[in-house]
Design a protein that fits this description.
The chain is α+β, with helices and mostly antiparallel strands and 191 residues long. Helix content is 49%, strand content 19%. The strands form two sheets. It has a four-stranded mixed sheet, sandwiched between helices. Strand 2 and strand 3 form a beta hairpin. The relative contact order is 0.13.
């Protein structure tokens, strides 16, 4: 997290919470989890999360004994605030956050790289529902467009199809693997 982001939000703790939660809107985090992940005291996190819920940036819900926080999709400034945060984080941190905790991904990488003139391709190998894949693509698009890069194209392969195409030397798969690659989940390698 940069000093500019911390200054903008007037609280380092609040900025750290937003920097962790906004790129991961699909996940909810309890105060104990946030404390462990961010290295901050629970009492400080509780105070800032309460403020962020009160102003509408975050929503909260009980899960057992813990209260989990996540971005509130109804907050009118959520999209530009998320874009600001992921721009500050950079693609190397924002892209893995977009895929964090998504069940069914064996491997995901960006083929074509960041800063290229042509649209990069988000390659996902796994077993995902269409809605989950669409949401992942939207989060990856936010991470890239916040930096002025074009949104990625999407190439999805079930594991068996990926393996078969790699083994057959499929031209599309060869091109994806030959392009500069940025790992998101797993490695960029062929199998």
């Amino acid at each position: 997290m940069s000093e500019a982001l911390a200054e903008l939000f007037s609280s380092r703790v609040r900025a750290a919470v937003l920097a962790h939660l906004l790129p991961r809107p699909h996940l909810g985090f309890g105060l104990t989890d946030l404390s462990r992940l961010l290295g901050l005291p629970v009492s400080s996190l509780q105070h800032e999360c309460y403020k962020l819920v009160r102003i509408g940036v975050l929503g909260d819900a009980r899960h057992g004994a813990a209260r989990h926080y996540r971005p509130n999709p109804a907050f009118p400034l959520l999209a530009p605030l998320t874009a600001l945060v992921v721009r500050d984080l950079g693609p190397a941190r924002a892209l893995p956050a977009a895929a964090e905790g998504v069940a069914g991904i064996e491997r995901a990488f960006l083929a074509g790289g960041v800063g290229a003139a042509a649209s990069p391709t988000l390659v996902v190998v796994g077993t995902l529902e269409v809605e989950v894949l669409d949401a992942l693509h939207a989060r990856a698009s936010t991470a890239l467009t916040a930096h002025g890069d074009p949104p990625p194209e999407l190439a999805f392969f079930p594991p068996s199809e990926w393996g078969a195409r790699v083994a057959a030397g499929n031209p599309l798969v060869r091109a994806l693997l030959a392009a500069p690659g940025t790992p998101i989940v797993g490695n960029v390698g062929a199998v």
